[in-house]
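pinning this so it doesn't scroll away 📌
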Amino acid sequence: MSEREHGHTHSHEHTRAVSNRLARAIGHLEAVRAMVEDGRDCSEVLVQLAAVRSALASVSRIILKDHLEHCIVDAIERRDQRAMEELERAIDKLIK
């Protein structure tokens, strides 16, 4: 969505932290792929996949918190019901 659609820019305080965490998760997932290709024990692979899932959940929490503190506060002030509906859909997909 563009700035015009939201009415504000997406400049959040946690952007760098999110980017760094995503880079680490990507690296970790690449390592898991290498484990699979090397024929490592399935139990070890599953443990590492759980770690990747946990890292992504952590990033999701940061993004959600940031979204609530910035975008949704702004949407409430502007009485933007569509933003609230989009948040509901996004949360539904996130926790599915």
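📌 and the second one:
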Amino acid sequence: MDVRNEENRIFSRFLKRLFAASLALFAFAAGLVFVFDPFYHFHAPFFGMVM
């Protein structure tokens, strides 16, 4: 029985880390798109960035 609890705990920890890493990568990609928006759809150009 201890082995099964250990496996569940390891799997649960893996899923939490996978979700956290996916969320962090998604937030990073969204931030890049927001700052370097190629079409200036979301905001005006920052810092004099003009195409």
